[in-house]
Design a protein that fits this description.
Layout (H helix, E strand, L loop, with lengths): L1 H19 L6 E4 L8 E5 L7 E2 L10 E6 L3 E6 L14 E3 L8 E4 L5 E8 L2 E7 L2 E6 L40 E9 L12 E4 L5 E6 L16 E10 L6 E10 L1
Parallel strand pairs: 13-15
Antiparallel strand pairs: 1-2, 3-4, 4-10, 5-9, 6-7, 8-9, 11-12, 11-14, 12-13, 14-15
Amino acid sequence: MKIKLIAPVASLLWCTALGAATLSAPTAVQIQPDPSSAVIVVLKAGTEQPAPSDKAGLAPEGWTAVLVPGPFEAYVKNKDLSKALDVVPGAAVFQSPKEGSLVLTTFEKGDKAEITGLHGSWTQIRLEKALIGYIQVAPAVAATPAAAPSSPAPAPAPAATPGAVMAGSGNPAGLSRLFEGTLDSTRNILAGHRPYPWQLSDSDGSRIAYVDLARLLLTDQLESYAGHPVVVLGTLKPIADSKDLVIDAEGLRLK
């Protein structure tokens, strides 16, 4: 019985000490215990080291599994959004908006996410979820009595790969977002009635969302934007009784 009590206490004390430590150099948290794997986030020197985690099992020698709190900027496919613009449980959450991108995690029931942008067939989200990652642990070096200890320069952290997710990079809730695409007219006799006369299209010509430009009072000038890449400032909203989305535009400029 004494042995069973001592082990958990020792483990708890070790975890507490590790979690309370501060980082002396920028440290990369990687998706796998492999120096060549993608970087989830680079933690600044002086920040508190993330708490260790055993959810992923025992980490290989030289690595420690840690739990990194969000929020994170990430992406899901548009098809994985419900009519209410919620990410459906089971959806894959990606590091960047492209096929073959790293899957950071799977969206689970109870996870929280806020839409922060649209990228063609992808939706950018601010994910409120802790992710498991790995950091390299420096091997212990035995003291040499005959020589004065030296302090080697800390090795630079691995550079973040393009599109690496950085903690705390999301926009504050409630602010308008920027959406990019081509402004196209929806006026087409053969296409039937459309809820709005303008839409934002991706590079393939597929509709990203309708655009409500009524607030801009640019009726006489809109033709100069038609067919051109633009940046729209506005709020994304669902259209009642429809799976379509609309951007309530507050600003419009050529890209």
